Amino acid sequence: MIDRNKMLSRYRVTGPDFRLKDMDPRDTAELDLPKEVAKQHLEEISKSINKYQEMLYAQDQWSLLVILQAMDAAGKDSVLDKVMSGINPQGCQVHSFKAPTSTELDHDWLWRTTVALPERGRIGVFNRSYYEEVLVVRVHPEILAKQRTPKSLVGKDIWQERFDDIRAFEKHMARSGTKTLKFFLNVSKEEQKKRFLERIDEPDKNWKFNPGDVEERKLWDKYMDAYEDMIRNTSTDHAPWHVVPADKKWFTRLVVAHAIDEALAGLGLSYPKVDAAALEAMKRAREVLIKEK
Fold first, then answer.
1. Which sign, positive or negative, has the C-alpha torsion 77, 217, 251, 177?
2. Least crowded by CB within 10 Å, which of 27, 31, 70, 108?
3. Pick from 159, 164, 150: which is nearest to 222 by CA?
4. pTM value surpassing 0.70
5. CB 27 within 8 A of CB 6
6. Angle at the Cα of 49 from the Cα atoms of 48 and 51, rounded to 5 degrees
7. How far is CA 218 from the centre of its chain?
8. How far from 89 is each of 50, 81, 183, CA to CA, in Å?
9. Span 54-88, pLDDT tens digits
């Protein structure tokens, strides 16, 4: 039996002393489940998530935002496919953010993700997010120069200022009824290499390979520094980061699924109660239907 609280607290970042090197990408919280058992367990959690999603939609008050961040080949798409597959598509919105368009560059850096936030009653998933602005943009400062921000506003404290903006933004969302869960899928450099080689060597995976990913791999250490600083500065009680081991895909999916299920369970969801007038209307409608020939 999996102790959910113990497992999630193992990967939830709660303090300013967070160090990425202390998190083992190969960790499985001392679980060693056969593939079929892990699959069955994931299916059970997915059913629970689907049940909560129906209540979330019916109640139409809360929304849930799930943010996935990771290095290439860490398994974001796999998590989406396996964890969210049982959810009614009408109640789930998935957005994948690529390089900003010219229109997006004409707005502030939070604009394009803000307009994609989930509506009340829905689960929204960001496959990458506004956090790219303190990751890729930080590792590639030439991108920052193209963002048309007034030069007088781009100083040595810009990353701390963006952390401040993110914390304020996520606090605003929490106060407005959007629960935010953030996951960094922590894949090891060795496992990433293995997955890249599989994409090259296996014909049915060739389509996944992007030569540019190998170039980004050369900047691994810079990315790890950026991730560590980002997580340390933006993990809060109302929008926590979970640093999820990603070398074992079955375990990654279980952790993410449990965290989503726990978050939904904590919202106090329920189906709306039908008032007396509505019950009377249903009673009359039932009588009409029964009398139909």
1. negative
2. 108
3. 159
4. yes
5. no
6. 65
7. 25
8. 10, 12, 21
9. 999 999 999 999 999 999 999 999 998 899 877 88
Helix (H) / strand (E) element for 252: namely: helix 249-265
Domain ranges of the chain: 4-291
How far apart, in whole angstroms, are the C-alpha atoms of residue 178 and residue 173?
A: 5
Which residue is associated with the tokens 């129906």? 54
Distance (Å, rounded) from C-alpha 254 to C-alpha 83?
8
Other C-beta atoms closer than 10 Å to the C-beta of 8 total: 18
DSSP secondary structure letter of residue 93: E
154: helix, coil or strand?
A: coil
4-291, which class in CATH? alpha beta
Q: Kindly compute the dihedral angle of the four CA atoms of residues 157, 162, 163, 168, in this order, to the nearest 10 degrees.
A: 130
What percentage of residues in the chain have a pLDDT greater than 70? 100
- pLDDT number for residue 220: 97
198: nearest Cα among 245, 243, 249: 249
Tokens of 150: 């007034």
